Each structure stands twice: as structure tokens, then as C-alpha cells.
UniProtKB/TrEMBL annotation:
It comes from Pseudoponticoccus marisrubri. PANTHER family: INNER MEMBRANE-SPANNING PROTEIN YCIB, INTRACELLULAR SEPTATION PROTEIN A-RELATED. The lineage of its organism: Bacteria, Pseudomonadati, Pseudomonadota, Alphaproteobacteria, Rhodobacterales. This is Inner membrane-spanning protein YciB. Keywords: Cell inner membrane, Cell membrane, Membrane, Transmembrane, Transmembrane helix. The keyword Ribosomal protein does not apply. One of its GO terms (cellular component) is plasma membrane. It is a multi-pass membrane protein. Coiled coil: none annotated. The chain crosses the membrane at residues 5-21, 33-54, 66-82, 94-114, 135-152, 158-177. Plays a role in cell envelope biogenesis, maintenance of cell envelope integrity and membrane homeostasis. Belongs to the YciB family. InterPro entries: YciB. Pfam families: IspA (PF04279).
Length: 191
């Protein structure tokens, strides 16, 4: 439960802080920053503290968590430094493109890099890992495209709702629909 709180807590905190400060403007050093930028500035250290606590708790961080943390610092930092929310909104697109591309490179090599990262969580036959990897790769590319459409065509508030609930729900629903694959390709306890 603590692990889940450390993973999802910063996202929910970002959402609540955004709702609270979205209509505010803050003057810092003679520059006006809207609520989104201030919330983004606060999100970065909160996220990093939670990642450090998660590392302390579990003894490791996945490559996905590390890459996500780096992109949050870089693109969140650019948003704050340049006072431009577009950089932070672009971050999910880049994360999903990066992970989708990495999985695609593994598939081109005939390997499931997803299996290397998640094998302990889901014991599947090799064929199941390859199918799941293809599906997740396509799913990540779809999420990248969807993020681009949402942030470029809708309001910041709509994007925040999408980022907080839409992306999380879509990942949850995606894995629910993989139940048949998990059942069909699950390794039996003896195997």
C-alpha cells in the first residue's frame, strides 16, 4: 500500500494542487507564473522524494521509473525555467514514445525487453511475452498520440484531468483486457 501511495501520490497531489491554484498568478522575481507552472515546480521535488522513498523501501527502481524521473526533471524544469507549460505537457508523449520505441527495438531483435523487466511479476511463456510486448508497444504509441491530441487541442484543465485519470484508467483497462493472454500463456507452477 505504501508503494502504491509513493507511486500515485505525487500525481494526485499535482491534481489537487492544480485545482487549488489553477486560477492564481504568482509574481516571483518580477515574472508572472500561472498556477500550472507553480504546481509543476512543486511536483518535481515531491516526485523525487517519493522516488527516493520508494528506492529506500524496495532497494531498487525500475529503468522505467528512472527514465520517467529524468524526463520529469528535464521537462518540468524547462516548463518552470522558460515559464511555458508546453514542455511539461509534452513529457508523457516522450515517455510513451521512448518506451514504445525501446520495446520495438527489442522486438526487431527477436527479444521481449518487457520480459526482462517484468518477468518476476507475470510468469509467462516466451510466446506470451512477445505478444504482450507487441501489444504494449502499440499501446504506448497510441497513448503518445492521444496525449499530443489532448494537449494541443484542449484546455490545460482538460489535459490535467486526462493526465491524472485518463492515462491511469487506460493503462488499467488495457491490462484487464490482457487477462485472456495471461491465462493462455501463464506458466504452470511446475514450469
Amino acid at each position: 500500500m505504501l508503494k502504491s501511495a509513493l507511486e500515485f501520490g505525487p500525481i494526485l497531489a499535482f491534481f489537487v494542487a492544480y485545482l487549488w491554484l489553477k486560477d492564481e498568478v504568482f509574481i516571483l522575481g518580477g515574472t508572472a507564473y500561472d498556477g500550472f507552472i507553480v504546481v509543476t515546480a512543486g511536483f518535481i521535488p515531491v516526485f523525487l522524494v517519493c522516488m527516493a522513498a520508494l528506492w529506500k523501501l524496495t532497494g531498487h527502481l525500475s529503468r522505467m521509473q528512472i527514465v520517467t524521473a529524468v524526463l520529469i526533471v528535464v521537462f518540468g524544469g524547462l516548463s518552470v525555467w522558460l515559464n511555458d507549460e508546453r514542455f511539461f505537457k509534452l513529457k508523457p508523449t516522450l515517455i510513451y514514445l521512448l518506451f514504445g520505441t525501446a520495446l520495438g527495438i527489442g522486438l526487431l531483435r527477436g527479444e521481449s525487453w518487457l520480459q526482462a523487466v517484468m518477468e518476476g511479476l507475470m510468469p509467462l511463456q516466451d510466446e506470451g511475452w512477445m505478444i504482450l510486448t507487441r501489444r504494449i508497444m502499440l499501446f504506448f504509441f497510441g497513448l503518445a498520440l492521444l496525449n499530443e491530441v489532448i494537449w494541443r487541442t484542449m484546455s490545460t484543465e482538460a489535459w490535467v484531468y486526462f493526465k491524472t485519470f485518463g492515462l491511469t484508467a487506460s493503462i488499467f483497462v488495457f491490462f484487464i483486457f490482457q487477462g485472456g493472454l495471461f491465462k493462455r500463456y501463464a506458466l504452470d507452477e511446475e514450469g
